[in-house]
Amino acid sequence: MEGRIVPQTPMRRAVARRMTDSKQQAPHFYVQTEVRMDALNALLADESERTGSRITATAALVVACAAALRAQPQFNAVWTDEGLLQADEVNVGVAVALEAGLIAPALLGADRLDLVETAAALRDLVERARGGKLRGSEINDATFTLSNLGMFDVSAFTAIVTPPQVAILATGRAIERFVPDGGEPRVVSMLTATLSADHRAVDGADAARFLEAFKGAIEDPRSLLSKTEQLEEARP
């Protein structure tokens, strides 16, 4: 075959090695759910206007992941030969596409941040990832990963677990659909979320409970706000 060799970057070689190891060693299974996004979209618009800074859906997804990880700590873990190591810290890795390859730096202590704080921390993390200025702990200490392709024309996909983590959540863009509401059709914004998990560490019922917690946080988005903001939202 005629053509030319495009040399692999060190990052691409590392990604290839880790993903191959993951698919060969971790028995993957996949669980999917659909999440209504209308309430979250309204909240994001309000918070972006209130703060004067755009708050993305990715930030909300990170906060919802952190809440689900606290509710289902077996997913906030890494696989070891001795057993499942459940981490004390909730460090959500967020997949970032670079020219050299894919990286998923961790938002450290993600469960301690509300929506606005997460949005600011995420902007800083992505900027430093693209500038090659990540700290070692951000590169190595993720306990779970979110891969969001909602900014592209992708409605759903499945992701490969990043070892030694035991799960990864994949989300695409929200799609408007008709759903029955009191006997009448209603247009709602629906997001498909697909959890890939290592069957050595967790089972299907565990995955269902994780997605239930994640979905609950997104569909009741006031839970993503700080207590002060929740009180302001509740005022007439």
Describe the structure.
The protein is α+β, with helices and mostly antiparallel strands and 236 residues long. The chain has a single domain, classed as Chloramphenicol Acetyltransferase (2-Layer Sandwich). The protein is 38% helix and 25% strand. The chain is built from seven helices and eleven strands. The strands form three sheets. Strands 1, 4, 7, 8, 9, 10 and 11 form a seven-stranded mixed β-sheet that branches. A hairpin with a 4-residue loop joins strand 2 (77-79) and strand 3 (84-86). Helix 3 packs across helix 4 and helix 3 (57-71) packs across helix 6 (204-219). The longest helix is centred in the first third of the chain and has 16 residues, at 10-25.
Low-confidence runs of at least 5 consecutive residues:
230-236
Helix % is 25-40%
What would the principal axes of the Cα set say about the shape? globular
Could you give the count of β-strands? 11
Strand share of the residues?
A: 15-25%
H/E element order: HEHHEEEEEEHHEEEEHH
End-to-end gap: 70 Å
